[in-house]
Amino acid sequence: KTSADNMRLASTPLVSWAASVYRLAQTPCGGKLWADQVLAQLNSTTAAYGTEAPGLNQSSRGQRGLALQALGLKRGSIVQAIVKGVYATPAHMGVNVDVNGVRASITSVNASHAPLTLEDMNKMFKTGEAIKALVVRVNLEDFRLQLSTKLLESTPGDMVQDPQMVYAGAEEKGVAFTQYKANERAQRIQSLKISGIKAGDVLQGTVKTLLRHAAHITISPGVDGRLTTANRTAQPDLKLGDTLSVKVLACDMETANVRLNLHQA
What are the tens digits of pLDDT across the range 184-193? Predict the structure, then answer.
């Protein structure tokens, strides 16, 4: 039997496994009481990750999605959050926070430019304390709010030395970040127009970044396209720097968003 402490150290695939067990337990050959016990253990396990098992509580997921949408946040917004607690696993370290009823987290790599220890995280983020953070990403599909205090620093390590000083200048940093992103977007649009790339083009691209559900592929100087996991089933094991043939599915000149698919001759 795995203890609760050990389960908190288990990897995310446990969540999918336990979700399957839960659904099986609710079938006629299972038992509702046992299913509830599995769910209770699963909820305590996933709390360490700031996540929720898929499909187990659709109503709460829907409520969280509506709450996140109601906040009207966008990239560069500055939010005030309440620290719920620091967490640490063999692979991850961060802090769970509450933003007006919406659960979010700040990973250690997004907490400061300086390398951090668990001691640093506990020093920076005390349970129940109000903090400020910059919104890096709002994902209404996965109900996720990605925050950063790292981008509020003027000097690497400011969050460790004096978090309150960092929070005092948060709004100014938020404005600067928003302007930087606007300029970056304008440059991407200009690069896309110069490239002459259009829907239907088949190009050679290089894997620039790998995300959970997609990869960013550089297809021209200053132009990156998005290749989702669903559109690369024929080549699932991509690595940074890989070269591959892609087809442009859509090309939006107003946003510089380019959607790609793997091209197979």
Answer: 989 999 999 9
The pair phi, psi for residue 76, each rounded to 5°, is 100, -10
Residue 125 · residue 167 · CB < 8 Å? no
Q: Quick one: CA dihedral 109, 110, 116, 120, positive or negative?
A: negative
* CA angle 55–58–59, rounded 5-degree value: 165
Q: Is 86 exposed, middle or buried (0-12, 13-18, 19+ CB in 10 A)?
A: buried
pTM of structure: 0.61
- Going from the C-alpha of 260 to that of each of 142, 204, 245, the distances in angstroms are 21, 11, 10
In DSSP terms, 126 is beta-bridged to none
Residue 102 φ then ψ, to 5° = -100, 125
- Please give the structure tokens belonging to residue 45: 């396990």
